[in-house]
From TrEMBL:
This is riboflavin kinase. The gene is ribF_1. It comes from Microbacterium oxydans. Gene3D superfamilies: Riboflavin kinase-like. One of its GO terms (molecular function) is ATP binding. It comes from the Bacteria.
Length: 135
């Protein structure tokens, strides 16, 4: 891993709205102090679980999920690319290494799903390059 992070955020995983799995991109929602959060947006990140030093590649959303009705607090949501672990109650350390785009409000959920798939592919390529995969 050669990229130094834009920000490092730690937080405990709490229940979200339970929508991510339906969309095809399950996310772990972190509870952390709002001042700890960087600008809203979509980020590539390395994530560590509790005190395990292994970094998992992830796509991360920071914001209020404006596509969906109802006010909610700003939150950081972590979609791990290559592993499904039950993360409830676990402490995550999230190294945000690149910001891809701002958070958008989509008129159609299918457009959000399509954009998220593209985000995950971009994050994966970026993190693979940073880790020297394939070189
Ligand atoms: C890579 C990625 C990109 C996302 N981009 C947006 C976005 O642009 N706009 C938005 O409203 N939500 C975005 N989200 C958040 C999803 O709306 C959210 O993960 C989903 O509603 C599930 O939320 P839940 O875990 O609280 O159920 C994104 C999530 C991920 C993982």
């Amino acid at each position: 891993m050669i990229t130094s992070p834009l920000a490092v955020i730690t937080g405990v995983v709490v229940p979200g709205d339970g929508r991510g799995r339906v969309l095809g991109f399950p996310t772990a929602n972190l509870e952390c102090e709002p001042p700890a959060l960087p600008d809203d947006g979509i980020y590539a990140a390395w994530v560590r679980v509790d005190d395990d030093p292994h970094p998992w590649a992830a796509s991360v959303s920071v914001g209020t999920n404006p596509t969906f009705a109802g006010a909610r607090e700003r939150r950081i949501e972590v979609h791990l690319h290559d592993v499904e672990i039950d993360l409830y109650g676990r402490m995550l350390t999230v190294d945000l290494v690149a910001r891809l785009r701002p958070t958008l409000r989509f008129d159609a959920v299918d457009d959000l799903i399509e954009q998220t798939a593209d985000d995950v592919a971009r994050c994966r390529a970026l993190l693979d390059a940073a880790a020297g995969v394939g070189s």
